[in-house]
Amino acid sequence: MSVAQVFEKLEQNFNADAAQGLDLVFQFDIEDDKTYHLVINDGTCKMHEGAHDDPSVTLIMNSDTLKGIVSGETDGMQAFMAGQLRAEGDMMLATKLGELFKMG
């Protein structure tokens, strides 16, 4: 599965109910691929390729870590503790990803 397909899967597994009233931008800097960002606005989710001017949080990882987290094989917190995942900005938002998207 390509990185773009992983983000398409994320978009398909979006939990709109959990995103009511939210206005956030999750940016993903994939070290061995491209940068993507997800704009979550009051129950909607749109994927964009490229960097956002002012992301709420930026998650930095390689494509294997991304695929593991989205498939459910890798725990995001364990990846963070192991240094496979770094976050810039509002790190607490990273913990919301599990609520906003069905992983696995």
Automatic annotation (TrEMBL):
Residues 8-102 form the SCP2 domain. GO terms for cellular component: cytosol. SUPFAM superfamilies: SCP-like (SSF55718). Pfam families: SCP2. This is SCP-2 family sterol carrier protein. It comes from Marinobacter guineae. The lineage of its organism: Bacteria, Pseudomonadati, Pseudomonadota, Gammaproteobacteria, Pseudomonadales.
